[in-house]
Amino acid sequence: MTEARGTASVDASMDEPAVAEPTQAEIDEWAARERQRREAWLTGPSAEEREAYALRLRQRRLADTFDEGEAMLADSVRRGMRFGREGQLAAEGAVALMYRFSRRTFAELVRAGREWEEETSLPTRRRRVSMDDEGS
Asked: Residue 99 phi/psi, 5° resolution?
């Protein structure tokens, strides 16, 4: 069983093409391309590349500024909605408190007024009425 596996791996390795080492011409060609790439990097971008980069940079900054403006606007709207709602709730609460307070206070004032009248009013004078008609 192990022999079958051993022969299968040998057969598979024979089917694969052998990886050849690069030739000296290929190495020289790669070195020349790499040298040109590095020299181009050292010289920096061309005038057209600089203009294209400056344009992209301006557009990116403008887009970022616009995005910041939209974010500030959205935040202002959200804050305005919240403050408007809180203002509405505060006004409704104030009206409710005044209504409850005024009814309660009015009832207490009426009760206090009746108590005051009872405590401070003079007793009614009773007039004596004679049983006989003395004067007649």
From this structure: -65, -50
Assign residue 44 a region (left: φ > 0; alpha: ψ between -120 and 50; beta: otherwise).
left
Q: What gap in Å lies between CA 27 and CA 39, rounded to an integer?
A: 18
Q: Which residues contact 45 (CB under 8 A, 6 or more apart)?
A: 53
As a whole number of angstroms, the longest Cα–Cα distance in the chain is: 163
> Above 80 in pLDDT, residue 133?
no
Instruction: Give me 99's structure tokens.
Output: 């209504």
How far is it, in rounded angstroms, from Cα 80 to Cα 63?
Answer: 25
Backbone angles phi, psi at 67, to 5 degrees: -65, -40
Mean pLDDT computed over 102-112: 82
